[in-house]
């Protein structure tokens, strides 16, 4: 039979977190809505955050997420297709070349582009990106818009005879990109060495410098994005050291988005042999950071 779910002291229903205006539902209907929210493609870890207002803010948006319209779905499909075609083309054209492809994680590309589009709607004008080798060429081509002719040229003749002389999957670039809604955002992908996570404090420091010279004391005009491999995120000490700068007055950027691309193997090591926690992001809750595990398939 129908039951009431709410605060028994004041009679306030919890229908603000339910996709219905009715405060009285059958248990089966409650369970159906709970499964839709918590058993979907995205997980939500935020109850470790001590700030109850922050938890309620997150919960309100999780429960009231708007479904994607047809236009956004087509845009996402188009971006995913470009990412997939890029990897397929490189695999056929330069079959034996080392390229650290993004196969199996191509949904990273539409995800990053949607993140940048949304950031532009909230006043962000600069995005600084740092990332490892895995997927760098795809991000260069499809997110930061480095001309693919330049990337293909580097496959044919290499990069040793011009520029920095570094390998192609260490290089960065910058580009002024127009979002889906017509806003302009300056993107810069920072070059990095073979030490995958050494770029982390550089990205955060560059973002802080941009905010300083703009006169942004809150951290709303420039945003850092750091990408990590699953093994490196919990295995490299510089990751945790950079996280600890988050709330220090002289280092804070107002927030950094960390994207962990989990390809299930840390270069040569199985997860059960490389960490003591179930998930690579289990080092983050100590810093009151919300975590959203996403099924990339």
Could you explain how this protein is built, in words?
The protein is α/β, with parallel strands linked by helices and 297 residues long. 36% of the residues lie in helices and 11% in strands. It has nine helices and seven strands, in the order ββααααβααββαβααβ. It has helices at residues 27-38, 52-63, 70-93, 108-121, 136-142, 148-157, 200-214, 230-235, 237-243; strands at 3-4, 24-25, 126-130, 173-178, 184-189, 222-229, 257-261. A five-stranded mixed β-sheet has the order 4-5-3-6-7. β4 (173-178) and β5 (184-189) form a beta hairpin. α3 packs across α4 (108-121). The longest helix is centred in the first third of the chain and has 24 residues, at 70-93.
Question: What would a concise description of this structure say?
Answer:
This protein is of the alpha/beta class and 297 residues long. The chain contains 9 helices and 7 strands.
């Amino acid at each position: 039979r129908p039951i009431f779910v709410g605060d028994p002291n004041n009679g306030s229903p919890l229908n603000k977190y339910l996709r219905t205006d009715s405060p009285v539902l059958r248990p089966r209907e409650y369970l159906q809505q709970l499964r839709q929210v918590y058993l979907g493609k995205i997980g939500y870890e935020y109850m470790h955050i001590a700030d109850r207002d922050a938890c309620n803010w997150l919960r309100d948006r999780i429960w009231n997420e708007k479904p994607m319209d047809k236009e956004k779905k087509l845009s996402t499909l188009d971006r995913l297709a470009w990412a997939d075609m890029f990897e397929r083309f490189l695999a056929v054209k330069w079959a034996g070349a080392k390229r650290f492809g993004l196969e199996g994680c191509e949904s990273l590309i539409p995800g990053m582009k949607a993140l940048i589009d949304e950031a532009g709607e909230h006043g962000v004008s600069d995005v600084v990106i740092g990332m490892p080798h895995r997927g760098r060429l795809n991000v260069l081509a499809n997110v930061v818009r480095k001309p693919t002719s330049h990337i293909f040229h580097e496959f044919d003749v290499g990069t040793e005879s011009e520029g920095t002389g570094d390998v192609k999957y260490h290089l960065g670039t910058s580009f002024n990109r127009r979002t889906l809604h017509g806003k302009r955002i300056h993107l810069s992908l920072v070059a990095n060495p073979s030490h995958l996570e050494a770029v982390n404090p550089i990205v955060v420091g560059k973002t802080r410098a941009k905010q300083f010279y703009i006169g942004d004391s809150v951290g709303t005009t420039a945003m850092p994005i750091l990408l990590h491999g699953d093994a490196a995120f919990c295995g490299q000490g510089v990751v945790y050291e950079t996280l600890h700068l988050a709330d220090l007055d002289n280092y804070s950027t107002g927030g950094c988005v960390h994207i962990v691309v989990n390809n299930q193997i840390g270069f040569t090591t199985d997860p059960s042999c490389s960490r003591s926690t179930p998930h690579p992001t289990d080092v983050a809750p100590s810093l009151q950071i919300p975590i959203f595990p996403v099924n990339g398939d």
